[in-house]
Amino acid sequence: MRRWLALLVAATTSLVLIALLVPMALLIGAVAENGAMSRATAAAESVAVAVGTPDLALAVEQVPRPVTVFLPHETTLGAPAARSDAVRLAATGRSVTAAAPGGREVLVSAQSPDGTAVIRVFVPDAELTQGVRAAWLALLVLGLGLVVLGIVLADRLALAVTRPVDGLARVSHRLAGGDLSARAEPGGPPEVRSVAMALNHLAGRIGDLLAAERESVADLSHRLRTPLTGLRLEAESLRDPEEAGRVQARVDALERAVSAVITEARRRSAGRGPCDAAEVVRERVRFWSVLAEDQGRPVSVSLPDVPAPVAVGGEELAACVDALLGNVFAHTPEGTAMSVRLSPRPSGALLVVEDSGPGFDPGLLERGNSGRGSTGLGLDIARRTAESCGGTLAVTVPDGGGARVEVALTAPQRAPGFPGGHGSAGVSSP
C-alpha cells in the first residue's frame, strides 16, 4: 500500500507541477525576450531623437550595443549592416522588428530634413534568452523537490495506516497458530482502531469458548469413565470365561475409543505453545516404565542431554506419546521389547517408537481404523499432532520385523529459553 500511495502522489504532483511550471517557463522566456526588445527599442529611440542634429554621431557612440543609422541617399552611420527588406520597409515611415541572422533587429524610423532615416539596433539571441535557462533549471529543481516532498509525506501518511494493519495481520497469524494471548494495539485511523478492538474482542471470545470446551471435556471424561468401569466389573463377574473374555475385549475397545475421543478433544482445546520434547517424552516414558516392568518388557530409551524445543503444546505431545506407547502395550504380547528415541534436528526433533511385535496393518493410517498389529488407535492422534506443527508421520517395518513409528516435529519459529539439558542418552531399563 505504501508503494501504491507513493506512486499515486508522485503522479498527481507531477501532473499539477507540469500544469503550473510549463506555462511559467514559457512566460519567463517571453518576459526575457520582451525585456531585451524593450531595451533595444529604447536605445533606438534615444538615437532617433538626435537624427538631423550634429549630435547624431555622439548619440550613436553612447549606445552600448551595435547601432546602425541608415541615412537618406544610401549613407550609413555606426556599425556596418546590410540594408535588408525590413530596413527598406522601415524607410517608408514604419517602425518594425524583424528576424536577423543570430538574433533580431529593431528598426525605428525618424524624419530628418533630408528625408527618412532608419535606426537599426541588433539584439543577439544570447540577450533574448538571458537568464531563461537558469530560471528553467530553478523551476525544474523546485518541481523535483516538491515531488520528493510529496512522496515522503505520502509515505509517512501511508505508514501511519499500514503499520497498524501489519500489526493486525501479525496478531491474527498468532491467533491462528494457537497463541490466544495475542492482542492488537489499537492505533492509526478510527476504522483501523475499530478493527483492532473487534479482533481483541474475538480473541477473548475464543479463549472463553476454549475454556468452556475444556470444562466440557473434563466433564465428559468423568461421565464416560464411570459407566465403563461398571461394564468392566460386570464382564468380570460373568461365569462363562469365554463370554467374559469376549465382553471384556469389547469393553477394552470401547474404552480405547472413548480415550481417543477425549484425547483428541483435549488436544484441540489445549494451548499450542512450544514445549521441550525431551522433557515431555522423558516424563511419559517414566510413567509407562512401571507397566513395562510388570509385563517384563525391555525398554530402550534414548533422549538428548539438551532441550529439544518443538512447536507443539506439552499436553498435546504427551497425548501423542501416550497413544503410541499405549498401542505397543495393547497390541503386542507381554515381554515384547520396545524402544523410544528422540533425536534433535535443526528443523525440530524426530520421535521414534519401535517394537519387535507382530507388525502392523497399513490400513491403520486411515482415520477410524483399528487392528491387531503393534499399532492402533494412537496413529491418528500422532499424525494429527505432527501435522499441527507442520511435521509428518511415517510407519515402517524394520528389517528384523515389528513396527517403527517416526513422528517428525518442527521447531517453533522463536524457540523460548528452555532451561539447561536434562537426562542422559542411551538409558536402558529392563
From TrEMBL:
Residue intervals of the Histidine kinase domain: 219-413
Keywords: ATP-binding, Cell membrane, Hydrolase, Kinase, Magnesium, Manganese, Membrane, Nucleotide-binding, Phosphoprotein, Protein phosphatase, Stress response, Transferase, Transmembrane, Transmembrane helix, Two-component regulatory system, Virulence
Pfam family for this entry, one: HAMP
Major site of localization recorded for this protein: membrane
Residue ranges of the TM segments: 134-154
Ranges where the HAMP domain occurs: 159-211
Reaction(s) the record says it catalyses: ATP + protein L-histidine = ADP + protein N-phospho-L-histidine
Top-level enzyme category: transferase
Highest taxon in the source lineage: Bacteria
Topology in the lipid bilayer: Multi-pass membrane protein
PROSITE patterns referenced in this protein's UniProt entry, alphabetically: HAMP (PS50885), HIS_KIN (PS50109)
Subcellular location: Cell membrane
Keyword Metal-binding: no
Name this polypeptide is given: Signal transduction histidine-protein kinase/phosphatase MprB
Organism whose genome encodes this protein: Nonomuraea spiralis
